[in-house]
Amino acid sequence: MIEIEHLTKHFGSTRAVQDVSFGVQRGEAIGLLGPNGSGKTTIMRVLTGFFPPTSGVARIAGLDAGDQSLGLRRKIGYLPENVVLYPDMRVRRFLQFCAGVRRLEGARARRRIEAVMQDCGLTDVAERLIGKLSKGYRQRVGLAQAMLHEPEVLILDEPTVGLDPRQIIEIRGLIRRLRGHTTVLLSTHILPEVSMTCERVVIIDRGRIVAEDTAEGLTRKVEGDDRSLLRVRGPRDEVHGVLAAVPGVERVESGDTPDPASDLHAFILHSSAGERVRQAAAAAIVGRGWGIVEIRPVALSLEDLFVRLVTKEDHGSADGAA
Predict the structure, then answer these.
(1) Residue 36, SS3?
(2) Residue pLDDT, tens place only, 143-167
């Protein structure tokens, strides 16, 4: 449904996007993840026909974003990072205006307006002026207009900016419900956002793709650090020393201990051996007569993944330059 092939975008001497290629299948939800300034918004603006590419191709449903942007825009709903609204219009009237622009009329327009207001939590503010709404509610109005015409593709640039925690949970749930019948491309610099809403992640940094996979697949690609959590009843320093001596353990960290006066202590083992190290550590603890309350692998967080992947890419670039 979305095809990006060798996309490059320059602004003068600044290369915002460099040879980016990826695709999104029909009904799939993809997260474009990266820090501010990484090129995410530029990719989305090229996709929506706002910017022409310097080189490469961006297509939606077979339509070229550069040459067929008018037809392409009929198929997409777009929530920009800084949504522009009419502050002197009431929410319902604004959505009626958007429906007219989208050539929705009569019963269908009324049905869709009520549906998106319900989905986006706007029913209670339908008659309020947009200019009097909080930033979070204005963001919801922007999302509602993007969904109004039931687009085949929904492009969301930082969709939860300005929302409070309860609103964020609601919007995440809405995006998950859209998966399967609407293709969703979501950009964010908020790492948990993609794991909670998207099936696949494209990590971008400084205009280049660093990695592309599911969150689980990215974890497998980060080599050399399997982490295990152990909660042990025993003398902390002695337990630490025994765990550090287990073959395959590269480093031992002290974990959170709720009660420092207790003999229950938490440790994080870093290794590259995984289950074999956990078995050896358990045997060493039991052999000393100490008690194991918990032992389990600890998954890398998306924060860890991003830092490691970007660092790995930097090292690779430096080696190539050398």
Answers:
(1) coil
(2) 999 999 999 999 999 888 778 888 8
Evaluate whether 141 touches 171 at the Cβ level (below 8 Å): no
Q: What predicted TM-score, i.e. pTM, was given to this entire model?
A: 0.72
For residues 293 and 272, the answer to whether their CB atoms sit within 8 Å is: no
Answer for the pair 27, 48: CB distance below 8 angstroms, yes or no.
no
Secondary-structure breakdown of the chain: helix, strand, coil percentages, each rounded to the nearest 5 = 40, 30, 30
**If you ran DSSP here, which 8-state letter would residue 79 be given?**
E
Q: Is 153 exposed, middle or buried (CB count within 10 Å of its CB: 0-12, 13-18, 19+)?
A: buried
- What per-residue confidence (pLDDT) applies to 321? 42
Across the beta sheet with 14-24, what order do the strands follow? 14-24, 2-11, 55-60, 63-64
Q: Which of 41, 32, 43, 38 is nearest to 6 (CA)?
A: 43
Q: Where are the beta strands (DSSP E) in 25-131?
A: 29-33, 55-60, 63-64, 76-79
Three-state SS sequence of 278-298:
HHHHHHHHHHCCCEEEEEEEE
